[in-house]
Design goal:
This protein is an alpha+beta fold. The protein folds into 2 domains: 54 residues, no CATH class; 39 residues, no CATH class. It is 26% helix and 24% strand. The chain has 2 helices and 6 strands, in the order E-E-H-E-E-H-E-E. Strands 1-2 form a two-stranded antiparallel ribbon. The protein has a two-stranded antiparallel sheet with strand order 3-4. Strand 3 and strand 4 form a beta hairpin. It is globular. The model has no long low-confidence stretch (mean pLDDT 85).
């Protein structure tokens, strides 16, 4: 289900629109168990059962289409990590 909600935490900037709202898509375990489990695991680690789903792109440089694009994006931004085909990639510092 898709909802429009007011974002209450400043730690969720990636999902927050300029008006302070977000479009939240809820996931139930009975119809999307794997993704629901991912959200639950993320919440256990971070306190937030929220992930940002977007058409990721380099500002003014087009969409990210290849693994090399996402690696370059993560290295150039404050992105902590990403998931591709069930594998978690975390940035090391």
């Amino acid at each position: 289900m898709l909802y429009f909600s007011k974002v209450l935490s400043p730690k969720l900037q990636a999902i927050t629109h300029v008006d302070g709202s977000a479009r939240v898509q809820c996931v139930e375990s009975f119809n999307n168990g794997r993704f629901h489990s991912l959200l639950e695991a993320f919440k256990a680690r971070t306190g937030y059962g929220v992930l940002c789903n977007t058409s990721l792109n380099f500002h003014g440089r087009g969409f990210i289409n290849r693994m090399s694009d996402i690696v370059k994006y993560a290295l150039e931004t404050e992105t902590d990590g990403f998931i591709v085909n069930d594998k978690l990639y975390l940035k090391t510092r």
